[in-house]
Write a structure and sequence with these properties.
Layout: H1 3-10, H2 28-59
Length: 69
């Protein structure tokens, strides 16, 4: 396989290049929705861990300090 052959299928310059193509059986708009859902879940998980840690520290009664103090 030559590099020119692979670049035709693997290198895109914009979303418009794959507008009518299927990637693993799904179109690009479906993949964009999946990415947004994934980012939403990862943000919620990050926020939950951060807020629960903050709540536990605040409930402990000790003053909240920087990690290096």
């Amino acid at each position: 396989m030559s590099l020119k052959f692979l670049s035709f299928y693997l290198i895109f310059t914009s979303n418009n290049d794959v507008q009518n193509s299927l990637i693993f059986g799904r179109d690009i708009n479906t993949w964009l929705v999946y990415v947004l859902i994934f980012f939403c879940f990862t943000f919620l998980a990050f926020a939950w861990v951060w807020l629960s840690g903050f709540w536990v520290e605040k409930k402990s009664g000790k003053s909240i300090q920087q990690p290096w103090e």
